[in-house]
Design a protein that fits this description.
By secondary structure, the chain is of the alpha/beta class. The chain folds into two domains: about 5-10 and about 265-385, Aspartate Aminotransferase, domain 1 (Alpha-Beta Complex); about 15-260, Aspartate Aminotransferase, domain 2 (3-Layer(aba) Sandwich). The protein contains 14 helices and 14 strands. The protein has helices at about 15-20, 35-50, 65-75, 90-100, 120-125, 150-160, 210-220, 230-235, 245-265, 265-285, 315-325, 350-365, 375-385, 390-395; strands at about 5-10, 55-60, 80-85, 105-110, 135-140, 140, 145-150, 165-170, 190-195, 205-210, 290, 300-305, 325-330, 340-345. The strands form four sheets. A seven-stranded mixed beta sheet has the order 2-10-9-8-5-3-4, sandwiched between helices. The structure holds pyridoxal-5'-phosphate (PLP). Pyridoxal-5'-phosphate (PLP) binds next to helix 3.
């Protein structure tokens, strides 16, 4: 088929041309004397994206899920009590992993479309006078429902009762795209992956840890091998890895970190917010609702859009792909058939978002959703023009 296939799923995301080119090079020797010239600056520069000043970042040849496992198996001990909440497929899978790894999981089930229940967390922490809870978990951005939770609020709940538990954050679909401040928010383990805000192919798992998490790892007793912090530290400090690193991806990461630094994190967050608002205006204009219950939960990286009763969202996703070469995200687990998702994170701009909206709009019409053709796109256009640097205004 002619033309681009459009990728608007919440990961993998679109890869900037500079990043793609940076990965197109011959294989290199990961034990060469010059290899640390690549890796040592990477270890330093990636910390800036997490706003981690005093800790360190591990870069695993895994997807984000591997970094989840690395965090839990290095920092905790079997049977440790952990406080988690579940409100979408990704928070569900993290709970499932914690249970399968043998932790005692205190899980709070929340309505899908909401996020981390701060009040209930505060209550549980207040009641835990003996400090049996060793870690508190927060999925910052639930990619299945398009819900963003308040990480700083989790820190505040811990501090309010001087609770020493570690704070774990899943930032796979948020870090590098929406506000995240590891040092300031006292996050001990922050997990991310290469194929979302970092604009790379899948294949790198990032785990950014605090000194407190490193100290905990020295006394924790859960078994681990491939993900061992100690093995990584021993080799990383000299610029190497305990096993073959994904050298192309590291070259890509160099390019991606350069692009992030060039645009500036605060500008990136503002861009994501503005683009997300355009999507939300379109959804309003269509007369549809987001899965996220209230604006407090709105995600600036992914929108999960509820389809009207009687329409199967799986057909929407299929139709968009087959008829318009456009990948939208489907509904997962409890919201299967009920939502479709537009991923609006990473390397994208207004016109790309408008492309996703026009594809979604044509598809919704094809699937029998009653909406005014052009209404969503028009609403987004108005928003983008209203919030743009207007050349006319500048000249005046
Ligand atoms: C994508 C995603 C994951 C899983 O990451 P993989 O790289 O697919 O292993 C975990 N959590 C969230 C919030 C995600 O969006």
């Amino acid at each position: 088929m002619a033309g681009f296939t459009h990728l608007f799923i919440p990961g993998p995301t679109n890869i900037p041309e500079q990043v793609r080119q940076a990965m197109n090079l011959p294989m290199e020797d990961m034990r060469a004397g010059s290899f640390p010239n690549l890796t040592l600056p990477l270890f330093e520069d990636i910390k800036k994206v997490f706003k981690n000043e005093t800790g360190r970042v591990f870069i695993y040849p895994s997807s984000g899920t591997g970094a989840w496992e690395a965090a839990m198996t290095n920092v905790l001990s079997p049977g440790d009590r952990v406080l988690m909440s579940r409100f979408g497929q990704f928070s569900h899978l993290w709970v499932d992993m914690a249970e399968r790894l043998g932790f005692e999981v205190d899980v709070i089930d929340c309505e899908w479309g909401t996020g981390v229940p701060l009040e209930l967390y505060a209550e549980k922490l207040r009641a835990d006078k003996a400090h049996r809870i060793k870690a508190v978990f927060c999925t910052q951005n639930e990619t299945a429902t398009g819900v963003t939770s308040d990480v700083a609020g989790c820190r505040a709940a811990l501090d309010a009762v001087n609770h020493p538990a570690l704070l774990f954050v899943d930032g796979v679909s948020s870090i590098g795209s929406i506000d995240f401040r590891q040092e300031e928010w006292g996050v001990d383990c922050a997990v991310s992956g290469s194929q979302k805000g970092f604009m790379l192919p899948a294949g790198l798992g990032f785990l950014s840890v605090s000194q407190k998490a490193l100290a905990a790892s020295r006394v924790a007793t859960h078994r681990h091998c491939y993900f061992s912090f100690d093995d990584m530290i021993r080799t990383n400090d000299a610029g190497y890895f305990p096993y073959t690193p994904a050298t192309q991806l590291l070259r890509g990461l160099r390019a991606s970190l350069d692009l992030i630094a060039e645009e500036g994190l605060e500008n990136i967050f503002a861009r994501h917010h503005r683009l997300a608002e355009g999507v939300r205006k379109a959804v309003d204009a269509w007369g549809l609702k987001l899965c996220a219950k209230t604006p407090q939960w709105h995600s600036d990286t992914v929108s999960a859009i509820l389809v009207p009763e009687g329409i199967d969202s799986a057909n929407v996703v299929k139709r968009a792909y087959n008829a318009y070469q456009t990948s939208l995200g489907g509904g997962l687990n409890k919201v299967a058939g009920k939502v479709f998702r537009i991923g609006h994170l990473g390397w994208l701009n207004e016109v790309m978002v408008l492309a996703s909206l026009s594809a979604a709009e044509m598809t919704l019409l094809d699937c029998g959703v009653r909406l005014a053709p052009g209404s969503g796109v028009a609403a987004a256009i108005e928003h983008f023009r209203r919030t743009a640097d207007m050349p006319v205004a500048k000249a005046a």
